[in-house]
Amino acid sequence: MLFRDIAGQTDLCNRLTESVDAGRIAHASLLCGPTASGSLAVALAYVQYIYCENRQHHDPATDPHGLRADACGVCPHCRKIEQLQHSDVHLVFPSVTSTETTKGLKSAADLQEEFRQFVMQNKALGTIDDWYAFLGVTTQQGQVREQDANDIVRMLTLKSYEGNYKTVIIWMAEKMNAVTANKLLKTLEEPTDKTLLILVAENTSTILPTILSRTQQIDVADSSQRAEWPEVFHSMFVNWMRLLFKLNMANLSSMVDELAGMGREMQKRFLTYTSEMMRQCLLHTLAGMPNGLRTGDAKFDAAFPAMITPRNAEQIYKALSDATYAIERNAAAKITFMQLSFTLSKLIKNR
């Protein structure tokens, strides 16, 4: 993948080539943005530029793509990476195990050829839903699994086959479960020499803050208009969290009815919004970052972040993720939200 083949990301591509030329290559980075806008494509082009033996430099004012530099596209490293067949560049992605074609598979390692074909056919712009359709998946949600984490650790500790960096790209990193993420922490904290771990995600709200804090985050601009959170989410979140402290069953039951009355897509968005609010709280209490809550209730925004701590954050994320998965599988919304409410109430009170 060459930078010139990626539409709408010229400024980002120029920043990346400039950092590589200056020798500023982060061991762990996170590219966040829609796959359809080029986040995976940018990751692949970035790696290809790092490996390229004959980087091409241009004058952005005269280059037809506005680029300051790009990979040559013809050296052995470039040719192998463009075909997704470089022995030192590994791809990890969500896998499923329940279809006829994937039954018995344990990790992304078992689907490498399928994923290579998928990326090549879609020019690295295929979405997660496109990937599921490619596999023939209709209901099950993919995961980056514990075995994937074991494979990543193993791959990054092996000696480079071609005397360069050892690289792992994790596509849809938000699909990592907690076990997988925790297994990667040591690799992030104590990297071996000349290793690159590049996470690509569309939504960072479900990625553990301990992972986020150990990566250089790079935003990939959305080529479409990104919707804001619905205004009603702010007041619903505040009311719900306050009810979790009081556990007044009559009022909580009414709140659950309100949540269950939304459409399933809106329910999933609200759970994603809740995950993002929890992440903002933890970043504020753990890393001292500015308070990211913007609910419109100043008293709540000032007091609530202290309720989210390293002791309960991981379990909160898991509970929200499990609830989202249940909604996706058409579980009874009232039961799902009531069970989630009891779980969150216990976790927040026992911070």
Explain what you see:
The protein folds into two domains: 3-219, Rossmann fold, CATH 3.40.50; 231-349. Helix content is 48%, strand content 9%. A five-stranded parallel sheet has the order 4-5-6-1-7, with helices on both faces. Strands 2-3 form a two-stranded antiparallel sheet. With 351 residues, the chain is an alpha/beta fold. Strand 5, helix 7 (178-189) and strand 6 form a beta-alpha-beta unit.
Assembly type of the chains comes to: single chain
Tally of discrete structural domains: 2
- State the strand order across the main sheet: 4-5-6-1-7
Query: Residue-averaged pLDDT, rounded?
Result: 88
Please count the beta strands (DSSP E, at least 2 residues each).
7
Radius of gyration: 22 Å
> What CATH architecture of the largest domain do you see?
3-Layer(aba) Sandwich
What share of the residues does DSSP label as strand, in percent? 5-15%
